[in-house]
Amino acid sequence: MSKTLPKRPYLLRAMHQWITECGNTPHVIVDAGRDSTDVPRAYVKDGKIVLNLSEGATQRLRLGNHAIEFDARFAGVIHHVRFPVNAVLGIYARETGEGMVFSEQDLGPEPPAEERGARRPQLKVVK
Description:
Blueprint: H1 8-21, E1 26-31, E2 48-52, E3 59-63, E4 67-74, E5 77-84, E6 88-93, E7 99-101, H2 113-116
Antiparallel strand pairs: 1-2, 1-6, 3-4, 4-5, 6-7
């Protein structure tokens, strides 16, 4: 039986490569409220943060299947940034605005309860 893998990490890597090879600057929009999201909180606005993932802006960039992590300077201070792939809401080229917005379907099947942890799901009111 073949297992279904989430599309989002593969789409992210492909879009990152395409944007970079076109000579543009890849930016991601991240939901800073997701669990395991470690980003500089001073730059979070309305629960989201936009991060530059270009080679010149990051060091040790790793676009993994489960998480994205890198080191970057914010106001001259180096921060280690790490967030789960499912926290990425979209990726786009700063210069052109071309990119991709992700849906919940791109995450693939829900992992078994023992992999997710014992927490109950939480609902948020969205206006």
